[in-house]
Specification:
It contains 4 helices and 39 strands. The radius of gyration is 27 Å and the shape is flat. The protein has an 11-stranded parallel beta sheet, with no helix packed on it. The protein has a 10-stranded parallel beta sheet with strand order 9-12-15-18-21-26-29-32-35-38, with no helix packed on it. Strands 10-13-16-19-24-27-30-33-36 form a 9-stranded parallel beta sheet, with no helix packed on it. The longest helix is centred in the last third of the chain and has 23 residues. It is of the alpha/beta class and 347 residues long.
Length: 347
């Protein structure tokens, strides 16, 4: 599929500088540009690439001033990063969607399948499951008994959705994820541990995206809830009875202990960990590898380190770390002097 620079500019409300008829048929990073590709420049660190890139067209912010002429046609926009995201969404939407049921799929006679649904080879749809219109279920995915999946969802290969869980509309779940496995509930006894049955479910609301190999455990009772618009990266653990608020985003390898409540519009860095039974308020920003062990204040609060503290306190403490060896030697010297004085007093 090919477009001109003018057509692309019209799609995103941009202004062309250069050849309006420059043809575009692919995307490329600006440092790996090639003829026929469109690239973008949003990070000033990459500005030097624009003078040598072989891409035919480059998206660039309106306020960027270049030091010398460039060979590529430019499309100036308010925000190049947002504009390329919009173009990639348009490109993705133009791809043909899979439809039809593979003859090697198993679908229970008690399941209800909507219109224009794709179910791949060796997928399994259990008793009483409901699959909404235009949903795609890729090979080897297992949909348990009584699961409800809404419209326009995409479940990639090797996903397991346990019995009774509910998934909304326009949800994407990437390969290898497990939705609704038992929460980690065991009661110690004299001989070991008694398993606590996990009889709740997982609810995933509309417009959620879940990365590969992420696990969301069913609740002990009630629901584990992922609210509308949440975006989870790969390899995230959401324990039983947790709740993640609307439009919160989490990077890879985040771990949440049981009954943690994360508010709306939070941002969580990679490998952050949350203690159980705490409440992280709306619009909290959690740094990478942060250890959150208590309730937060919200309203734009920023936390880093483990245990989590505000950045000012964190960097003050780190500055002191470098002085600890000298402080230790000074204290040791003072202790020796004190011991010597004590000996003199005794005499």
């Amino acid at each position: 599929m090919e477009f001109t620079a003018k057509q692309v500019a019209d799609m995103i409300g941009g202004r062309v500088e250069g050849n309006e008829n420059a043809a575009i048929s692919s995307f490329a990073k600006i440092e790996e540009g090639k003829p026929g590709a469109i690239s973008f420049l949003s990070n000033p660190k990459y500005t030097h690439y624009i003078y040598d890139t072989e891409s035919s067209v480059v998206l660039i912010n309106e306020d960027v001033e270049l030091e010398k002429p460039v060979a590529a046609t430019l499309i100036r926009v308010k925000n190049a990063y947002k504009s390329v995201a919009k173009l990639l969404q348009l490109y993705e939407s133009m791809k043909p969607r899979k439809t039809g049921i593979d003859p090697h799929a198993f679908i229970s006679e008690k399941a209800k399948i909507g219109e224009n649904v794709y179910i791949g080879a060796f997928a399994c749809i259990g008793d009483g499951a409901v699959i909404g219109d235009n949903t795609q279920i890729y090979p080897n995915t297992v949909i348990g008994d009584g699961v409800t999946i809404g419209e326009k969802c995409t479940l990639f290969p090797n996903i397991t959705v346990y019995q009774g869980c509910k998934i909304g509309n326009n949800v994407t779940i990437h390969a290898g994820s497990v939705i609704g496995a038992d929460g980690f509930g065991f009661a110690p006894n004299a001989e070991g541990y008694d398993k606590i049955p996990q009889i709740g479910i997982v609810i995933i609301e509309d417009d959620v995206e879940i990365g590969a190999n992420t696990c969301i455990d069913r609740s002990t009772m009630g629901q584990t809830i992922i609210h509308k618009g949440v975006k989870l990266d790969n390899l995230i653990q959401v324990a039983h009875n947790c709740e993640i608020g609307e439009s919160t985003v989490m990077s890879a390898q985040v771990g949440m202990a049981g009954s943690t409540k994360i508010g709306a519009w939070c941002m969580v860095g990679g490998q952050a960990g949350f203690a159980g039974h705490i409440h992280v308020k709306d619009k909290t920003f959690i740094g990478a590898q942060c250890g959150v062990i208590g309730d937060t204040k919200g309203d734009g609060e920023q936390l880093i380190g483990s245990p989590a503290v505000n950045p000012k306190m964190f960097f003050k403490a780190r500055a002191l770390d470098a002085k600890l060896p000298d402080m230790y030697r000074q204290i040791a010297a003072l202790q020796r002097e004190l011991d010597a004085l004590k000996e003199e007093i005794k005499k």
